[in-house]
Each structure stands twice: as C-alpha cells, then as structure tokens.
Amino acid sequence: MKEYLAFDVGGTSVKYALCNEEGEVSSASKFKTPDTLDQMYLEMEKVVHNCPNVEGIALSMPGAVDSDGGIIYGSSAINYIHGPNIKEDLQNRFHKPVELENDANCAALAEVWKGVAKEESDCCFIVSGTGIGGAVIKDKHVHHGNALHGGEFGYMIMRYEPSEGKYYTWSDDGSTVAVTKRVAKELGKDYHGLDGKEIFDHANVNEVYKKYVDEYYRTLAMGIYNLQYAYDPSMIVIGGAISTREELLDKVNEQLDIIFGQLTHAHVRPNIKVCKFGNDANLIGATYHYIQRHG
After folding, report:
1. How many CA atoms lie within 13 A of 62 on its CB side?
2. Distance CA 137, CA 289 (A)
3. In what order do the strands lie in the sheet with 57-61?
4. Is there a contact between 88 and 122 (Cβ–Cβ < 8 Å)?
C-alpha cells in the first residue's frame, strides 16, 4: 500500500506522520516550529531522510496557499513562510513530489475523504476557535476562490453597532475568545485570567457566563444559516476546539429553531455535523489533497 509523508505546520509545532492511501496514520511525531525557513527545511529533511519509500510529501500550512504555484500569500503566525516558493524549494531538496494546502482546507478534506462528509460532494467546514475559519468544498475539491480566500468565513460581517459606528465580523463576535473577553469586561476582570473552557462548562450555573455563551451559539447559528442560503451545501461540518463539546449540536439547533420560527419563508434546514477527526485531521487532509493532484 502506498504511503505518504505528511507535515502539519503550526505556529508552535510541526507535526508529521506517515499516512497511507486509506487515510491511516502511523509513526506520528513533531518538532518545535523553527525560527527560520532554512531551519524548517533542515528539520523536514531529517524526517524525509528516515522515510525513503514514501510516494511524496504533503503539507498542511497556514495562510492563503496557492497550491498550484507553491507560494503562500496572506499572513500567519509564521512570517517566513510567506513569499518563498516552498513547493519548489522542497521538491528540489527532497527529489520527491510535494503538495501543499491551507490547514483549514486540509481539515475539511479529511472529513470529505474519510470522515462525516465522506458521502457528500458539496459541503462547508467551519473552524471555530480563537477566530473563525473554514473551507468550501465543491465536488469533493477545495474551492479556493479568486483571491485564495474561499472559506474565510471569519471576515463575514455579522453586526453593525450604530453607537460605535463599527462593523463586527464573525471572528469578532463568534469566536471563543470573544466570549471570554465579554465575560471579563462585564465582570471587570482581565480576560487573560479567565479560562474559556470553564466559562462554557459553568454556563448553566453562572448568569454572566450563560449570557455570552448563548450569544456565541446564536452567532454560530446565524453564520450557519447564512452559509446554507449562500452556498446551499448538503452538509455543514463544525471543527475546532468547540467541536468536542457534547452539547454543541443541541445548542446550535435550539438557536436555529428560533431563526426558522421567525423566518417562516425559509425551508432548507442546514444539515450540521461535528467533525470526526481531531489532531490528525490536517495530516489526513493534506494526504488526500496530494492524492487528488496525483491520481
């Protein structure tokens, strides 16, 4: 069975593993994200040297990834990856085919290949954490968009505050960090001293926590509703840290009940699922992206 070497490049660490053509992960490990691109290449080279029989190398990367050209545009926590032709550099260094894709897109591809959306062709994937990210899948392939910003749902405007003359995006209003900041402001505390998980865990017994957790779920439901009617996917998959919460789907559906109760002309109810894959999602999706491009 063919095997591929997948790397998941993040702001603090680079995870890597072997992944076969069935999406099975083995020999997983990681190294600290280096300070320079040259150091990154050297660390990757050590890993590749120990995996001489892989078909190719698949990368999951932050930023606006041009999979065809091999350059990463936009910005991320790793400044040095933006600009160089990483695909070309690595192919010249390793003498093996290399493919790279955006990390959120990889997480979505993992679900389309072997996860909850494996029977779907057109779906949306939402990543909810410190901000809102995502991916648009069309015919089981990533829709990148004209400016490589397909799936950047966090930029969607969700609210305008007349008293401030200010627009608020989905990331502003609907991230878990936004919940923590609002709780801290109402309680007169430094939000760095609050634990977002604790706020969600105790929302049922703390009125301030409940107020902003409910607002979070309402904003999430609004975004999901908007995506359903903008793209009309057969499934919307939720990933990110929030996806591990048992009550997630119930809470979102409660808010959707309210929306559909008011907007009675709307008849297409979003089909929402929680992602199957956790820490291995980007590795699996990067591998699937490689397989799609190489047949």
Report:
1. 16
2. 12
3. 25-32, 13-20, 3-9, 57-61, 98-102
4. no
- Which CATH number is 119-274 given? 3.30.420.40
pLDDT tops 90 at residue 240: no
**Residue 168's pLDDT band (cuts 50, 70, 90):** very high
The DSSP output letter for 13 is E
Residues 6+ apart with CB under 8 A from 293: 67, 99
Q: Residue range 131-139: average pLDDT? A: 94
Please state, in angstroms and as integers, the Cα–Cα distance from residue 88 to each residue in 34, 97, 164, 291, following that order: 20, 9, 47, 18
Type of residue numbered 57: I
Q: Which three-class secondary structure state does DSSP give residue 142?
A: strand
Enter the pTM of the model: 0.92
What the block records as the tokens of 75 is 């910005």
Q: Please name the helix (run of DSSP H) or strand (run of DSSP E) that holds residue 127, with its range, or none.
A: strand 123-128
DSSP secondary structure of 236-258? EEEESGGGG-TTHHHHHHHHHHH
From CA 75, how far away is CA 241, in angstroms rounded?
22
- Cα–Cα nearest to 227, from 179, 180, 250, 259: 259
pLDDT in tens, 255-295: 999 999 999 999 999 999 999 998 899 999 999 999 999 97
- CATH superfamily entry for domain 3-108+279-294: ATPase, nucleotide binding domain (3.30.420.40)
Q: What is the pLDDT of residue 129?
A: 83
**Strand 166-169 versus strand 157-161 pairing type:** antiparallel
Domain limits of the chain?
3-108+279-294, 119-274
Three-state DSSP class for 189?
Answer: coil
Instruction: Tokens 């109402």: give the residue.
Output: 186
Please state, rounded to an integer, the average pLDDT across all residues of the chain: 95
